[in-house]
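QA checklist item 7 of 12: single-chain prediction sanity check.
[x] sequence parsed
[x] length recorded as 207
[x] structure emitted
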Amino acid sequence: MNKTELITVVGFSILLLFQMTQTEVCPPPCNCKSLGEMMDWHIDCSSRKLTEVPALPVNTKRLYLQNNSLTSVPPGALDSLRSLEEVKIFDNPWNCDCHILYLKLWLEDFSAPSLADIRCATPAPMRMKPLSQLTGNELGICKRLLPIKCLEFFWRDLILIAGVIIALILVAWALKFSKKLVCQINLTQLESRGSLLGKHTKTHKIQ
């Protein structure tokens, strides 16, 4: 195997690992694109007829969930998105009862303009009313909604981290193996040249 073939094999291996990682972190119904900035992702789940928020990679930077069939967001579902800078979540049939409280409070902290774009679809008295304008009386007596899915998100994040670590180990092993193979090839070439030079010198002395 020459150097060109070796580089091709290593490059293909790295590309395959990248594609495997992308497959693992990208929600199946969505279109995902790496932004190339600290492995950040642009996740486009718009117009997918989603009825619930899919599992999202923690390094999501842009999230588009508009024009779906979302009625609420489970408590804690968006808390792990530490890298998020942009979210679009309008044009969904939001049910503005106590279950919408988590989304309202989260958007108040994250993006007031995104909150202003959300309109209630149900119940009937709230229809077309901006979520940002709802008061405690309109939402009813809402108890504190605990993040019941925290454990689920913990295991998902742990699996993703383990996958990334395994991918990095495989890449490091491939690079180490390639360096060793290159050294062996160079050593073989040097030995071959030395052997030819020795034969040439010996022939010259005989003459």
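[x] summary fact logged: Residues 150-206 form the longest helix (57 residues).
[ ] second reviewer sign-off
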